[in-house]
C-alpha cells in the first residue's frame, strides 16, 4: 500500500453496507457471525482476560464481537471504514445499553499513527481477506498493541478444500452467506499470515480451526485449519 492511499476495497465496503440493517438479525446473512461469536470470544478470553483491558476491534462491522468484549468488562473501540455498519453498531450499543464501547470510522493504519502501543488486546476477525493489502493491516495491528499484548486474527485458508467449503458450500449450496461474499484469490495461507506477523514483530502463539456441521447447523473449534482459522499472536 502506498502512502496516502486507503487500504480498502470500495466494492467490499458497499457490499457490507448494503446489508447493514440486518447485522443484528440472528437469522439473517450474519447468522454465522452470531453463531461463531461465543466460540471466538471464549478463545480470545482464555488467552487474554478482557476485564479492565483496553481493546481494539479492527474491522468491527456492526459490532458483534466488540459488543460482547465490552460486556466482559473491556474498554472497547471498534473501527471500520463502512459507515452504515458502524451506525448500526452505535445504535445497538445505545439500545442494549452496552457499557464501555465506542466506534470510529477510521482505518487501522491511520489509528496506528495516532495511538501506537495503546491497546492491551487487538482483534481483527474475518477482515484480512477483504482488504487489498492484508500485510498493512497486520503491521497496523502490531503497532497499535502494547509490547507483550495480544493480537488475534481470523481468516480463511487458500486451498481446494477452502474453495469447496467456504465458497461453493457456504455461498451456493447451504446459502449460509450471500453469493460473492468471498473471493478465493484473497484467501490467505497460514504461511503467508505468519510471514506478515514476523515482519510486524508479532510472535505466533497458536492456531485453531473453525468447522461447520451442516446436519446440526453448529460451529465448533477444531485442529483443522484448512478452511477457517484463528491465530493468536503476541507483540514482542
Automatic annotation (TrEMBL):
MF-aspect GO terms: 2-polyprenyl-6-hydroxyphenol methylase activity; 3-demethylubiquinol 3-O-methyltransferase activity; polyprenyldihydroxybenzoate methyltransferase activity
Pathway: Cofactor biosynthesis; ubiquinone biosynthesis
EC number: 2.1.1.222, 2.1.1.64
Reactions listed under catalytic activity: a 3-demethylubiquinol + S-adenosyl-L-methionine = a ubiquinol + S-adenosyl-L-homocysteine + H(+); a 3-(all-trans-polyprenyl)benzene-1,2-diol + S-adenosyl-L-methionine = a 2-methoxy-6-(all-trans-polyprenyl)phenol + S-adenosyl-L-homocysteine + H(+)
Key words of the record: Methyltransferase, S-adenosyl-L-methionine, Transferase, Ubiquinone biosynthesis
Pfam family membership, one: Methyltransf_23
InterPro entries: SAM-dependent_MTases_sf, UbiG_MeTrfase
Gene3D superfamilies noted in UniProt: Vaccinia Virus protein VP39
Domain of life: Bacteria
SUPFAM superfamilies documented for this protein: S-adenosyl-L-methionine-dependent methyltransferases
Residue numbers binding S-adenosyl-L-methionine: 40, 59, 80, 125
GO biological processes: methylation
Family statement: Belongs to the methyltransferase superfamily. UbiG/COQ3 family.
NCBIfam families in the record: UbiG (TIGR01983)
Biological role stated in the UniProt entry: O-methyltransferase that catalyzes the 2 O-methylation steps in the ubiquinone biosynthetic pathway.
Protein known as: Ubiquinone biosynthesis O-methyltransferase
Organism: Ramlibacter pinisoli
